[in-house]
Specification:
The chain is of the alpha/beta class. Helix content is 18%, strand content 27%. The protein is elongated.
Length: 360
């Protein structure tokens, strides 16, 4: 297995304001762009050639990763001129693949943090003789997901939309966002128009009698589509709950990048990551949070399960809990922001102006 496609073209609308200036795969998680973790895990599984299917802010990727040689990879970049969906994006990059029609190609969604055994998925694909193989995971509450039931041999029997009633929940298995395609199957996806693999390609293949194999791997799995999930994923990487060879330091309660300043009386716990040039002042307490490059957390501030954007400033004694502060925003002293509040990039909140409001 030497080739993979990474789908990194999404606009990351649910992640705003994190994605106003940065495509979501490039938002830092545990000190490096999230995409770095995916690429490093692919390389560790034996992948050598990766094609990145880009769209939104496509110009950001290549200056950072270059040809991929620093990661031991060969990277290529293909940009969609118009959004093509998951299937359309896969088809759009097919000409850059080097393998033959019967060879396997790994495909990843660019916003999934997982402990998937990539080699095992490829082995499942080749040993079962499948046309496409899917990573499936089990979730306690599958109502927010499409369901993928399988037979006793792991062969996919249906693709079911999000269930609306208890009777419709026929399995707890969901599509986990990683696939292995035979190259010949990729070449059958229509060109030049939007195509969803979830709603069109996979159901269509099943209707035609193709062999779609499911592999259940219920190790760590998290969809990073919301700010709260992204913050949690970064903390889990730092703590070592989520695997990645790309975390730039030792796993533990905190990860502080070179150039950051943390006062002796500050306390960092719960997998907190502090970016280069950031400042954590005396008496501040930061738990399970991400503080990006150049941000400042003032004296006595409390930051819990939150993200503080690049260059943002958090005033003294301010409390953030489950909050997202956009790049360059300023939150004055003695504010209290909780429960998913988002402060837009460059916004300014005066001292003591907000107490647990959701209107920022």
């Amino acid at each position: 297995m030497t080739e993979a496609i990474l789908l990194v073209g999404g606009r990351g609308t649910r992640l705003r304001p994190l994605t106003v200036h940065t495509p979501k795969p490039m938002v830092p998680a545990a000190g490096v762009p999230f995409l770095t973790h995916q690429l490093a895990r692919a390389r560790a599984a034996g992948v050598e050639h990766v094609v990145l299917a880009t769209s939104y802010l496509a110009e950001v990727f290549e200056p950072y990763f270059g040809d991929g040689s620093d990661l031991g990879l060969h990277l290529e970049y293909v940009t969609e001129e118009e959004p093509l969906g998951t299937g359309g994006a896969i088809r759009n990059v097919a000409s850059r693949l080097r393998c033959g029609p019967g060879d396997p190609v790994l495909v990843f969604n660019g916003d999934i943090l997982t402990g998937l055994d990539i080699r095992a998925l490829v082995e499942t694909h080749t040993s079962s003789g499948a046309d496409v193989s899917l990573h499936l995971t089990k979730v306690a509450d599958p109502r927010a997901f499409g369901l993928v039931p399988t037979d006793a041999d792991g062969r996919v029997t249906a693709f079911l939309e999000k269930p609306q009633t208890p009777e419709e929940i026929v399995t707890d298995q969901i599509n986990a966002g990683a696939y292995v395609f035979d190259r010949s199957v990729i070449d059958t996806i229509p060109e030049g128009r939007p195509v969803s693999v979830e709603r069109e390609t996979f159901p269509g293949l099943l209707a035609e009698g193709a062999h779609l194999q499911g592999m259940v791997d219920s190790t760590y799995w998290l969809d990073l589509g919301t700010p709260q999930a992204f913050v949690r994923g970064s903390a889990d990487l730092v703590l070592g709950h989520a695997p990645s060879p790309a975390v730039p330091g030792r796993r533990g309660e905190r990860l502080v990048l070179d150039g950051a300043e943390v006062a002796p009386g500050a306390k960092l716990t719960g997998g907190t990551a502090v970016g280069a040039g950031a400042v954590i002042a005396e008496g501040a307490r930061v738990h399970g949070s991400t503080v990006l490059d150049g941000a400042v957390v003032g004296p006595g501030a409390v930051v819990r399960d939150s993200l503080v954007g690049t260059g943002a400033r958090i005033g003294a004694r301010t409390v953030l809990e489950g909050a997202v502060i956009g790049d360059g925003a300023v939150v004055g002293e003695d504010n209290e922001l909780r429960d998913g509040i988002r402060v837009w990039c460059g916004a300014r909140l005066e001292a003591g102006s907000v107490r647990f409001s959701s209107d920022c």
